[in-house]
Request: fold
Amino acid sequence: MHIDPYIVLGSALIGLLVGMTGAGGGALMTPMLILLFGVAPAAAISSDLVASVVMRPIGAAVHLRAGTVNRRLVLLMACGSVPAAILGSFLLHRLGHAKGDVRDIETILGGALLLGATAMALRYALDRRSGVAREDRIHAIAPRPLLTVLIGALGGVIVGMTSVGAGSLMIVLLMFAYPSISARRLVGTDLAQAVPLTLAAAIGALLFGRVELALTVSLIAGCVPAVVIGSLLSSRVPDRLIRPVIALVILASGLRYIGLSTPTLGWTLAALLLAGVTFVLHGWWAAGRLARPVSSSTALE
Reply:
């Protein structure tokens, strides 16, 4: 059994993002395997799902220990996502070689994620301007049962058919269904609900898909330790730093789904990251100028 060190390294980077944001796993892992390493799509999807069965419970455990998981939301979402994920795997099996149908689903999902990332960025900017903090205690969130079950079911069907979209899509939907929840609690709840969902989708992949053992072990070797580090960061880092990272990962997922090539995606994200760092540094500089004490000579003028 050959473990590919480059796949280990790539999966470690993606595992770090999953631990920090709860999103971007399948959205980035599967394209990486197909485009960069030439893995067959069926094997990439199935192996990614099975590796996630090991990765996501570890990240969820870190957040459970930190108290950033709403168990009631997890239960409601699982009621919708678990049967829907198995249904999605079955539908993918019935579609057979009709790749165009799956591609249409991914394109629609990509457009939805781009809208979601834009809305998240806009709300983040408005919150900063108004000084509103999204910091409700995790057990103070009042569940909306029907809406939450529907969010789980939608994510379950998509992850069963494509292995991607669950984290990215559910993060967006949860953020707007529960606007007062903080980013770290949003990530913790999403990682926890992904455990039964991923398990159900992996069972579907084992029944209907094609899992490669060496590929799966390579993914696990890279993503498991990285997701622990990412989860530790997201459970402790301030909300104002986590939300932009979530939005960036969801934006990357959306761009990947609509068919942006890997080099173009890389340059686009690099430009956005540079713009974001410039914006943050400018904010710190402006805040420093406002906080600087006025000299006596200036005050006399």
The chain has one domain: 5-283. The chain has twelve helices and no strands. The two ends are 78 Å apart (CA to CA). The first helix runs from residue 5 to 21.
